[in-house]
Every structure is written in C-alpha cells, then in structure tokens.
Amino acid sequence: MKRILIVDDDITLRTALIRYLRNRGYAVEDAGSGAEALLRFEQAPPDLVVSDVVMPEMDGLEFCRRLRASQSGQLVPFIFLSSRKEVNDRIQGHQMGADDYVVKPFDPKELIAKIEAQLERSRRIHSEILRLTQQSQQAASEATPAANPNPLPLTPAEAKVFWEVIQGYTNKQIGDRLFVSPRTVQTHLSNILSKLQLESRSQLIRYAFERGYRPPADAGGISPEQ
Question: Which residue, of 35, 127, 180, 207, has the greatest Cβ tally within 10 A?
Fold first, then answer.
C-alpha cells in the first residue's frame, strides 16, 4: 500500500483529502505545516507528498526546498496543491523541486490521476536503477577477475546498508529488507557517505562498481542495536 503525506493548514480540506485517498486504497498521513511535515517525513518517508504553498511556521516552498536538500527526500514525488494560480507561482514551485502543481479549487479525480502518474514514474525510475545495477553486476562477474577490493571502512551494519544501496533499493525498501526503520537506514547511509567522502547515492553506486565491490550472497539483516 502506497503512503501519501498531505500537508495543508486547512484542516477541512485535509480531512476531505484523507478520506478520499483512503477510500482509494492509499495509506495517508497529514501535517498542518512544513515544519511538522519535515518531522513526519524523517520518522517515516512516504511514497509521495502533496503540499499546500501558503502555511504557517514554514511554507510549502521552504518545505520542498529542505526536502530536496536531504538524501532521503531527493527522489520522492512532490505535488503542490495551491490557490496560487499565476504562471510565476507555478514556475517557482517547479524551481523548488516539485514534480507537479495543482491549482485550487480542483477536481479530486485530477489529483488522483497526477498522484498515480507520479507514483508510476517513481516506480519506473527505481526499476531502471535496479536494472542498471544488475547489468553492471553481471558485466563485472563476466569480466576478468581482478584483485579483491580493499576492505570498506564501515561497521557491519553500515556495510549491509552499503550492499543494499548499490543494488538500487530505496531507504524504505532497505528498511523492509533489513528489518529496520527508513530513518535508521538514512543514518547509516549518511555515515557511509561521510566515511567514503562522497555526496550522494549515485556517487556511492559509481564508487562501488568502479572499484569492483559486489554484494555478498549472504547479506542479512541489521539487528536493532546496530
């Protein structure tokens, strides 16, 4: 079941959207401001975000900017839902990193169509990452064997996350596979990037395959204390 985070200070609209989306098979969480939404996102990253623009504490534009600046929020589909309908407003929303922009008042069917389109696009992106990763692994296995790579300067828990990341899995998928929370996965990933002096997932994947690292067949789960 796909999880959607609704962010809007209008509780009436929020309640209506929650009911509408849940009736269509989505798991829905909500927040009344960008600041609250960031906390909810850190606790459990959703599959998609729908956010208003004008809100107290932190508006939707700043929320989107901070989300895109984080490792776990870079690829999450983001849709603005706003009463601001001028072209410049929509342009600003896209410049902040939004994938789509819906103007209030709106037809709920249109929002559902855009949500489904963004979720499908996200699925294709992750599938392509996984395909390319597997293709690289196959090419590496068929190449002339090279010397074993240097040991990674990682803890056992970080190493397990490393192998999952280079196979193209998202934080949520890694959490499910290793029986930990997405937040724990993100903590390990941040430590890995820092230790290897890298800045992003894509750099980490490139780093791994350029140096011949391939996931071990016996990669298992991370215990909670790790």
Answer: 180
